[in-house]
């Protein structure tokens, strides 16, 4: 256990951020999976609808620092390309 007050505060803060980050990351993964599933099922309308949500979730997560900005851009680009390819 931490002996310094600042270290104890940091531990509490890190635990709160862990929950926050997990929530955002879970949302991103869910929407990305929905888009990928729609692409596999060749359902373009569903893929486009889910892509809007996925793109938004990726942008928010990147803005909050949960994932890196270039990783979000890369994932968005690949999902978009997969939909256009259908």
Report what the structure shows.
The protein is mainly alpha-helical and 86 residues long. The protein has a single domain, classed as Methane Monooxygenase Hydroxylase, Chain G, domain 1. Helices cover 86% and strands 0% of the residues. It has helices spanning 5-40, 44-64, 69-85. It is elongated and about 60 Å long.
- Sequence of secondary-structure elements: HHH
Unreliable residue runs:
none
The CATH topology annotation reads as: Methane Monooxygenase Hydroxylase, Chain G, domain 1
Tell me, what is the CATH class?
Mainly Alpha
CATH superfamily: Ribosomal protein S20
SS element count, helices: 3
Architecture, CATH level 2?
Up-down Bundle
Instruction: Give the averaged pLDDT, no decimals.
Output: 94
Rg over C-alpha atoms, rounded to the nearest angstrom: 17 Å
Can you summarize the main beta sheet?
A: none
Structural class: mainly alpha
Give the strand content.
Answer: under 5%
How many domains? The number is 1
Number of strands: 0
The span between the termini is: 54 Å
Shape descriptor? elongated
């Amino acid at each position: 256990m931490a002996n310094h007050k600042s270290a104890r505060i940091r531990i509490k803060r890190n635990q709160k951020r862990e929950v926050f980050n997990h929530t955002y990351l879970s949302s991103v993964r869910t929407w990305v999976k929905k888009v990928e599933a729609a692409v596999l099922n060749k359902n373009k309308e569903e893929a486009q609808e889910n892509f809007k949500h996925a793109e938004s979730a990726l942008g928010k997560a990147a803005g909050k620092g949960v994932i890196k900005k270039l990783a979000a851009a890369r994932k968005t680009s690949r999902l978009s390309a997969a939909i256009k390819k259908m």
